[in-house]
Automatic annotation (TrEMBL):
GO terms for cellular component: membrane. The keyword Signal does not apply. This is ATP-binding cassette sub-family A member 3-like. It comes from Sapajus apella (Brown-capped capuchin). It is found in: Membrane. PROSITE patterns: ABC_TRANSPORTER_2. One of its GO terms (molecular function) is lipid transporter activity. Residues 606-839 form the ABC transporter domain. Keywords: ATP-binding, Membrane, Nucleotide-binding, Translocase, Transmembrane, Transmembrane helix. InterPro entries: AAA+_ATPase (IPR003593), ABC2_TM (IPR013525), ABC_transporter-like_ATP-bd (IPR003439), ABCA (IPR026082), P-loop_NTPase (IPR027417), R2_ABCA1-4-like (IPR056264). Its main location: membrane.
């Protein structure tokens, strides 16, 4: 029944019980009232419905109808009766008239599953919710444990990153040690294999000819190829392709008056080529003086270390800097994985909706990631100490090295968080951030060194300064420069201390050797340390600003710039699409009521005022068109529509995920465009696709959300267990969510949405993938949540679900509300047929019954006939419920009917009328003339 404002429920109940004493009240929520009528009183239905029709206005009934028990309800009743050893045959012969109920099913279910009462599931007086600092402390705890569990459950990935960091440093440090017997290298052309030695001879000097002869003989004996060049030797070297690869040295012999000039040339792409060229020249000179059999042998052996020192090479600061920043890139880039996953799966949005503070969310992540980073740095220091590179660990140097690492981590971790907003996939985000960090460090380091050497570039000082300062925003560049400069500074000090005579080559003055490494002077690390400490704050500030102001910025741009421009240049489209001329009367009345009584309706749990959403693409898409609606406490509002009708977009706006183009939404009086943080803390949200952290268990994630809502620590276990119990998830509580079926994930997502102290809960297709038992558990939890005073907004493709749960609903087509009202109101308003189903004991009188129906109900259509079962569509016009039941009761005896049922049009048929009006209208013409 649909109630009017002056409906007298007591009198209605008295009237029904007068005719059917065993009738039970099923539901009395909002404008709907429903009773269960047992089948064995079918003979009284005619009198009851006639009385209701006569007293309809006096009792305050807007409209009423009837429906029959569904097969799903029969399935539940039979299954639970079997479990309780009840006679199934009695159930098989029964049917009910009136809207189907969950009440009896709940009673049966309570014998099998321990259920929590509605007050206990929600804000029971026994459950204490923390506020203020205690709440923030709990939220920090929840967010911190979440990060710990991520690394614990993905320990192989974390271990691989840490090993990559340690391995890159250990490999370089290991290569710094020389063996006991260092190889002696001969400085001749034989080390390059067979080569071509171009030479030119000019003049007629006997000495020059003698030198040329010794050169040819020596080269042939060493299996080298002499190549005499006529003309310009340099031109030959430049223009001959083979020389680039095979010419290591070249020689010019030029005779001048009283003098012969020898010029040795070398290919600088080959190691040791200058020494090899000089050795060739010295040998032919020696042969010309001592004979053809004479020769010189030149070799090279590294200088042994000073006494008391280990046999090690001095570390190249640039090589260590590049190796270290590569390892750091492997580790640091991994901190984006959970961040990107949470954002792309909407888990982060659900956490914010549940009340998590932006500061708590990011600082908890920073703390745990910094702990992992700090532990990795200690491992690096252990590797350095093991390889005895005391420059980084001796005396107070370990503190200086750890200071560099600490400030790098402080800068790099927020940098990764900030850049991660750009990416839409965790794997691609890791790879791209790894490349960004590595190349910004490597190329930045090389570019920085070039900029510091003014002889290598012709840039102006201004350009050089701008480029150099821009590199400072990359943490890996700052790390590479710090390690490189730090190594160079202390190597210079050590060399000045050990080798006093090196002052010719190094600035070993007292002023230079005693200068603090933290100085801001060139080639000192002070500048880089300050930049890293500062950019850490800057990156965090940018993150907080984006999280807190991006919503307002998008709303401002949409409402005050894009929409104004769109209205100006698309006046005709705006006027046509947003006009309410073709709207249903109920939709118009709801908008009129909201616009005329704004202050009175601000106390509504949900108030939507002329909501418009346009996606400014090419072409623009009007996703939501001028929607207005008010939802009160305890109401369950259903939003129906086919895919692409605008349901999910509407939900995204209501939950703060999308910004509206025009209009506003109020939750408990708080505007979504102005007080988004207040709004988010008052809603629960189950998105269309499960926003779950699959590396956690149901118990862990429920505990996390209980802490987010502020449930006191001693009560969390009881609170979580009752919610798990209410949706029959206790047997899966300790299993990883990644092992759950789709239906179990939906149940868990719904439980997360229903828990807490939210005023309104948005459920986007919550029963998708659920089996019938799980779906009924969900219905029961939703019903109890409504009874506790919370408002619920639900979308579903199950018309039965909306019929059972919703006190009012709207059908949305192309962004507009096509109709609005309670399910019974819509069926009465848009349904023009009754559905009659008849089963015969024998088919002897079947044809006679067909003629009887055609004569008694003009315009009726036989839809189906199968083995003695007929399905008719009967026009409801001029056929009231009392009249129909009276006729069918008489026909039951006259035509020997085994059973029959009569019900009004289903909600699904009403939905199809709007979702596909062309098909519905053609079907209607074929079905009911």
């Amino acid at each position: 029944m649909v109630k009017t404002p002056d409906c007298n429920v007591t009198e209605i109940s008295k009237l029904i019980h007068h005719y059917i004493p065993t009738a039970t009240l099923e539901n009395n929520v909002g404008t709907e009232l429903s009773f269960i009528l047992p089948k064995n009183y079918a003979h009284s239905f005619e009198a009851l419905f006639t009385a209701l029709e006569q007293e309809q206005e006096n009792l305050g009934i807007a409209s009423f109808g009837a429906s029959v028990t569904t097969m799903e309800e029969v399935f539940f009743k039979v299954s639970y009766m079997e479990e309780s050893q009840t006679d199934i045959k009695a159930m098989q012969s029964s049917s009910q008239v009136g809207q189907s109920s969950n009440r009896n099913w709940n009673k049966n279910m309570s014998r099998n599953v321990e259920r929590a009462d509605p007050p206990t599931l929600n804000e029971s007086p026994t459950i204490h919710f923390n506020t203020g600092c205690s709440l923030y402390s709990q939220q920090f705890h929840a967010m911190f444990v979440k990060r710990v569990l991520f690394n614990w459950r993905n320990w192989k990935l974390l271990l691989l990153q840490i090993l990559g960091l340690i391995g890159s440093v250990a490999f370089l440090l290991s290569s710094g040690h020389t063996s006991e017997d260092e190889i002696i290298r001969q400085m001749d052309l034989g080390q390059y294999g067979q080569t071509i030695v171009p030479f030119s001879l000019s003049g007629n000097s006997d000495l020059a000819a003698n030198l040329s002869k010794h050169l040819k003989g020596m080269l042939k004996s060493e299996n080298q190829i002499p190549q005499e060049v006529q003309g310009d030797l340099l031109r030959y070297l430049r223009e001959t392709k083979d020389c680039i690869r095979l010419c290591i040295v070249a020689l010019s012999i030029e005779s001048k008056p009283n003098i012969v000039v020898l010029t040795a040339l070398f290919n600088n792409e080959a190691y040791h080529s200058p020494s090899a060229a000089l050795a060739v020249l010295d040998n032919i000179l020696f042969k010309s003086l001592s004979g053809a059999d004479a020769s010189l042998t030149v070799s090279n052996k590294p200088q042994p270390p000073p006494d008391g020192k280990d046999n090690e090479k001095p570390i190249n600061g640039q090589q260590l800097a590049l190796a270290l920043q590569f390892g750091m890139a492997l580790l640091i880039s991994g901190y984006c994985l959970l961040t990107v996953t949470e954002r792309t799966t909407k888990t982060k949005h659900i956490q914010f909706v549940s009340g998590v503070s932006v500061i708590v969310y990011w600082l908890s992540a920073l703390l745990w990631d910094f702990i992992i980073f700090f532990a990795s740095c200690f491992l690096i220091m252990g590797v350095i100490k093991y390889h005895k590179f005391d420059i980084y660990v001796m005396d107070y140097h370990i503190l200086e090295t750890m200071l560099i690492f600490t400030l790098y981590g402080w800068s790099a971790i927020p940098f990764v968080y900030l850049i991660s907003f750009v990416f839409s996939g965790s794997t691609s985000a890791y790879i791209k951030l790894l490349l960004l960090n590595y190349f910004s460090g490597t190329l930045g380091f090389l570019i920085g060194n070039i900029l510091e050497n003014k002889q290598l570039t012709s840039m102006s000082n201004t350009t050089r300064t701008i480029l150099g300062n821009s590199l400072l925003f990359f943490p890996n560049y700052n790390l590479a420069k710090c390690i490189g400069e730090y190594t160079s500074i202390y190597e210079m000090k050590i060399l000045c201390t050990i080798y006093k005579n090196l002052s010719v080559y190094l600035n070993c003055s007292k002023e230079n050797t005693e200068k603090s490494i933290y100085s801001l002077d060139e080639f000192m690390i002070g500048k880089y340390l300050i930049v890293m400490s500062t950019t850490g704050f800057i990156f965090l500030l940018l993150i907080f600003l984006w999280e807190t102001t991006s919503w307002r910025l998008r709303t401002f741009l949409n409402q005050h710039i894009f929409f104004r421009i769109y209205k100006r240049y698309r006046k005709d489209i705006v006027a046509k699409e947003l006009s309410g001329q073709s709207e249903d009367e109920d939709v118009q009345n709801e908008r009129k009521r909201i616009l005329e009584q704004p202050q009175e309706l601000l106390n509504s749990t949900v108030l939507i005022k002329e909501l418009i959403k346009i996606y400014f693409k090419s072409p623009a898409i009007l996703a939501v068109k001028n929607v207005s609606l008010a939802i009160q406490k305890g109401e369950c509002f259903g939003l129906l529509g086919y895919n692409g009708a605008g349901k999910t977009t509407t939900f995204q706006i209501l939950t703060g995920e999308e910004s509206p183009t025009s209009g506003d939404v109020f939750i408990d009086g708080f505007s979504i465009t102005k007080d988004i943080l207040q709004v988010r803390s008052r809603i629960g949200y189950c998105p269309q696709f499960d926003a779950l952290l699959e590396y956690m268990t149901a118990q862990e994630i429920m505990v996390m959300y209980a802490r987010i809502w502020g449930v006191s620590e001693p009560q969390i276990g009881l609170y979580v267990n009752k919610w798990l119990n209410s949706l029959d998830l206790e047997s899966h509580a300790d299993k990883l969510i990644r092992t759950y079926s789709g239906g179990n994930k939906r149940r868990l997502s719904t439980a997360i949405a229903l828990m807490g102290r939210s005023s309104v809960i948005f459920l986007d297709e919550p029963s998708t993938g659920m089996d019938p038992v799980a779906r009924r558990l969900l219905w029961d939890a939703v019903t109890k949540t409504c009874e506790s005073g919370k408002a619920i907004v639900i979308t579903s493709h199950s018309m039965e679900e909306c019929d059972a749960l919703c006190t009012s609903l709207a059908i949305m087509v192309q962004g507009k509300f096509m109709c609005l009202g309670s399910p019974q109101h819509l069926k009465n308003k848009f349904g023009n047929i009754y559905i009659l189903k008849v089963k015969f004991k024998t088919e002897a009188k079947l044809e006679d019954f067909k003629c009887y129906v055609t004569t008694t109900f003009p315009g009726s259509v036989l839809k189906h006939e199968n083995q003695g079962i007929l399905n008719y569509y009967i026009p409801s016009k001029d056929n009231r419920w009392g009249k129909v039941f009276g006729i069918l009761e008489q026909a039951k005896e006259q035509f020997d009917l085994e059973d029959y049922s009569i019900s009004q049009i289903t909600l699904e048929q009403v939905f199809l009328t709007f979702a596909n009006p062309e098909k519905a209208s053609s079907d209607e013409e074929n079905e009911v003339p």
